[in-house]
Amino acid sequence: MYNDTKQPQNAFIAPTAHSRQRLPWRRILLSAFGLYALYCFAHGSPLLASPLPSYTGPHGVGAIDLEVPLNGGSRRVADAVHKTTGQPVFEVETLLATVYYPTDRDFRSHKPRYRWIPRPISLTAQGYARLASLDNCITRPIFTLVLWAVGGAVTIPAEVDAPLLRPGNGHDSFPVTVFSHGDVSSRTDYTQFLAELASRGHVIVAMEHRDGSGPGSIVKTSASSPGRRVPPLRPSDIQHPDPDSEIEFDRDAFKRAQLAFRDAEFHAAVDLLHAINNGTPILNTRDPVSTLPSWTGRLNTTHLTLAGHSFGATGALQALTTTLSSAPVAGWILDPGKSSGPLNPNATVPILVVHSNSWSRTVSPFYQRPHFDTVRDLVSAIPAPSWFLTSIGTAHPSVTDAPLIEPLLLSWTTGTTLDVQEALREYVRVVDDFFHFVRDGGQRGILSEKATHHQYDEWVSEEREREFPRDLARLWQIHVTPANQTRLMECPVEL
Ligand SMILES: *[C@@H]1O[C@H](CO)[C@@H](O)[C@H](O)[C@H]1NC(C)=O
Ligand SMILES: *[C@@H]1O[C@H](CO)[C@@H](O)[C@H](O)[C@H]1NC(C)=O
Ligand SMILES: *[C@@H]1O[C@H](CO)[C@@H](O)[C@H](O)[C@H]1NC(C)=O
How open is the CA angle 415-416-422, to the nearest 5 degrees? Predict the structure, then answer.
């Protein structure tokens, strides 16, 4: 299958490489690709990639891109400059995010949909080339062309700048979530998952971190500025501003600086939600949006959850302890990072940790212990009702958009066994169940089940194996539930 998708790309990249002696199969492939391109064109679907499906919750989904300068001016979170440009690299100037939110199902925006790969594509392409250590003037246009062919035409099926869902029917104010992406990602890598939650009545701020972890981003401090490009960073790209300083940016120091950067962005996102809810005018340096003034008083900023995937999950665990003054009520933590530094164990609110199957199955040493054991003990010791589960049949990228766009490629390279749509549906369902629990303490779905496996793939007992429904065992292993939390047992927390 991989060759099927690869050949046409090559043919597409080098259409001039014709020769008199070309083999008939080449001509056949070229014609087949031509026909396929014609088909895609006629059907308005993207070349080589599946379009993103529409959302399944009871509401429609709106989206707005916002970039806002930090309250109180930019903040330097670590002293480091880029070796070639001499510019500070850990200075947080603005917050960039896409907000997904519920709207009327029938509303159609006249504004064009947001693109899945933000423009310019060449910026993202160069970032990937650089991350693959292949960045030069020959590979750059090739990466751009491939990225353009694979996902250039994909758009996010949310209505841009739609009005927030009308009040009434219990929708007077919506719970809010701030979501942080993983390494080598951007704000558009989890659109399906986050928009599915929005279609179920949540306002989600999908941040884009400018800590050098993404393939490329643009910081705009004012609407008229052309913007500053943020390329991906490696520890070897940076140094202390004082060349004689002894301070070295090894991997740990680098990750700590990135985490501090992301923490400042978490704070900025929480500030933004409060400002919107208070009706404070928002200084937005991206395309103007008109919906925000009608959001005053419509966000339940008391029902604030922090969330993230991979490095973003590590960041969310950290932010749960640093944003205490804004009182987040819960966190959901997906595949907390293995290589993104230590996990902050000090959260005091309910958390839901979900591991993909590959994240639990692969035994990774993590500060002298298996990563799985660290996560299990961390969840057990949280002084609030919390869960730790593994989603069976999934892999690390299952919760991102990538498998939806390139399903065959992803299942081939990551070994997922669960259908991509079903995997995403399960993630949406368990997070929705968790939201339900946070709202009124009710335990439903998989969260109403007792533990099944304290170790990955080892049943707690034969009896539990017999009684646990087959259709759930195909999808989940439950490692920690509130009943298993040591501190809760000693001193139960009233909800
Ligand atoms: C906001 O969320 C909190 C916490 O879940 C809840 O107790 C409260 O009732 C909600 N407020 C509204 C207006 O929905
Ligand atoms: C967690 O709390 C302990 C005890 O207060 C403290 O020593 C530790 O530094 C904290 N960890 C983090 C990562 O903040
Ligand atoms: C976890 O909880 C289940 C049922 O709630 C119980 O059977 C099991 O013994 C508990 N395990 C630990 C380690 O507390």
Answer: 165
